[in-house]
Structure formats: C-alpha cells, structure tokens
Amino acid sequence: MLLDGVLSENLAVKYCQECKGTWIPAKEYEAWQTDQIGKPQSEVPSGTLNVDFVLSPFDTKAALCPECQRYLSRAKVNLKTPFYVERCMQCRGIWCDYGEWEVLEQLGLHTTIEQLFSNEWQSRSRERQFFDQERQATIDKLGSELAASVFELADALAQHPNGDFGVAYLMRRVTANRQPPNAKT
C-alpha cells in the first residue's frame, strides 16, 4: 500500500509506510525534471565520498514495479556503501529504498537518474572506483606525504609532451636500486 508524498522541490511520489521506500512515477519525475533544467549536473562520484548512509535490507532483493508488476531493473551507485536504484523499463518509474534519494541529492544525481542505467555511466563509475582504490593503495604503501608527491609528479608528467621519458627514467632508477649489489647493470 503506497501513500501520497512529496520529495524535495515538490516532486510528487508514493511511499511505503512499512519499508520507507519511495516510488517516483515517471510522469511526475519527468515533469519535475523539466523544472530542474539549468541546475548543475553531477559526474560519476568518487567512491571515497563519505556519505552518511545505512544500506536498506531490501536493496539486495529483486522487486516488482508497483504500477505494472514487471521486474525492476537495477543500477549500482558505487560509493563506500554501494546501493542500487531500481527503475521499471516498461513504465519508467523509479524506486528508491529508504535514504537513497537523499544520497542521490547529495551527489547531484537525482535530476538525471536515467544516466545511472546507461552502460557508459556504469563503465565510468567502475573506472572511478578503480582509480580511487589505486590511489588509496598508493597512499597505504608510500604514506600520505610521498604519495602526494607521486600524484603531483604524475599529473605534471601527464601534461608534459615528453612525460613518458620521465616515467621511463623513474622506472629505470627504481628498478636499478633494487638489484643486488653484485649485479651488472
């Protein structure tokens, strides 16, 4: 049993009193979305973004559309605590478990939810997650001070037309310093 409700900026929705989830009918979302034109849009968020969010226990379960009873398609939002936004591909309505809409708002993704369901966005999200993990591993291995220097140098080399020469030089120096003292170079 879904009840009438309103989300931010007068978006008419239906919500479940029991699970606190929100159904956003496509017609309501698309009309509301039109009013959002010109407001800043968000890119793929950083996976290290610390958002105060508790994952819904219902997020791991398949769900049916409250309007047409078809299975909802899921799009992963990769954060420290990843979650899924569901959408009906038939009637285009959107389901957000408790707290997910607020996270989408914080990330600036609430005005363009359809992008979450594109292969391009999901691919960029995975790339961003890998980048963040690699960066954190570098900090963990080298310490924050040396890692900051490495990141700064990497940015400078990436911008320089002969940056690859600098990278090759560093590789030779680092590997040469690891050879046993009696090794011929």
Automatic annotation (TrEMBL):
- Output the Pfam families linked to this UniProt entry: Zn_ribbon_TFIIB (PF13453)
Q: Transcription factor zinc-finger domain: which residues?
A: 65-102
Among InterPro entries, the record links this protein to: TF_Znf
Q: What name does UniProt use for this protein?
A: Transcription factor zinc-finger domain-containing protein
What is the species of this protein? Allocoleopsis franciscana PCC 7113
